[in-house]
Amino acid sequence: MPFILTRITRDGLSRLMAKYVVGQIVCHERGWMDTHMKQIKKDCIGWHTFHSFRSLDQLTVGVMGLGKIGLTTAKVLKGFGCRVHGLVRTPRSHSSVEPFVDQLWHGREGLADFLKDCDYLVNLMPSTPLTHGLLGDEVLTGASRRPVIVNVGRGDIITEADLLKALEQGWIFAAVLDCYEKEPIPEDSFLWTHPRVVMTPHNSYNNNEDYKRHHIQTEFIVNFENFLAGQPLTGEVDWQTGY
């Protein structure tokens, strides 16, 4: 029998992950990683080169998964002027995600249209049988703007092999990864050294100990007291859907 499992639902987690997404997009657009590498190499001439970049209000960002974290991310992106496209697993009305999502698509049948105009793809979907390999095979050939993938959801939405193929074939421009098909990441993985891959150690949600005490412990205590009292729990996982 499945046991009762709950997840964190407080707004603090959603805001932290939304900030990670915006930060990585700005970092990529402004070429700060390249500038830093020129600093390390003491490349004085290259370091002074101006980097042409797009502002956030010039970008279309596709957000995959519009739960609490996804909607918060869409809201933050919209606040910076981005055009936001949304993809959800189960059908819902567009009015349920307005005014933070400009266009909405559903499931695998809507994926091709969702991908067409995105400059960035932000994955915030959970790991379920319906999301495994969702961006695999050759589905990314339909992403005409060669988007950057920002994966802060689950790594199994695309295999390493399919990700490498998408990069090498030019279907996507780059990948920013905070989660992976295999964790820990094998030492021989191409991800460590690929010039168009940025990796972070699955910490997009993480903050200091004060945050953990204030949010995680507080929410656990409230849920535990509700459990003992026979009251409904917040963030209870549905074992049928997988999240």
Write a short abstract of this structure.
The protein is an alpha/beta fold.
Give descriptors for this structure.
single chain; 7-stranded parallel sheet; alpha/beta; 7 helices; 12% strand; Rossmann fold
If you had to describe this structure to a student in words, what would you say it looks like?
This is Glyoxylate/hydroxypyruvate reductase A. Residues 34-203 form the D-isomer specific 2-hydroxyacid dehydrogenase NAD-binding domain. A seven-stranded parallel sheet has the order 3-2-1-4-5-6-7. With 243 residues, it is α/β, with parallel strands linked by helices. The radius of gyration is 19 Å and the shape is globular. The chain has helices spanning 11-30, 32-40, 44-47, 68-79, 111-115, 160-168, 209-228, and strands at residues 60-64, 83-88, 103-106, 120-123, 148-151, 174-177, 197-199. Helix 1 (11-30) packs across helix 4 (68-79).
Give me the secondary-structure topology.
Elements lengths: L10 H20 L1 H9 L3 H4 L12 E5 L3 H12 L3 E6 L14 E4 L4 H5 L4 E4 L24 E4 L8 H9 L5 E4 L19 E3 L9 H20 L15
Parallel strand pairs: 1-2, 1-4, 2-3, 4-5, 5-6, 6-7
Helix pairs in contact: 1-4
Report the CATH superfamily: NAD(P)-binding Rossmann-like Domain
The strand order across the widest sheet is: 3-2-1-4-5-6-7
What oligomeric state do the depicted chains represent?
A: single chain
* Fraction in helix: 25-40%
Shape: globular
Low-confidence stretches: none
- The total beta strand count reads 7
Encode the helix/strand succession as letters: HHHEHEEHEEHEEH
Distance between the termini: 16 Å
CATH fold category name: Rossmann fold
Radius of gyration: 19 Å
Keywords: NAD, Oxidoreductase, Pyruvate
Domain D-isomer specific 2-hydroxyacid dehydrogenase NAD-binding: 34-203
InterPro entries: D-isomer_DH_NAD-bd, NAD(P)-bd_dom_sf
Organism: Portunus trituberculatus
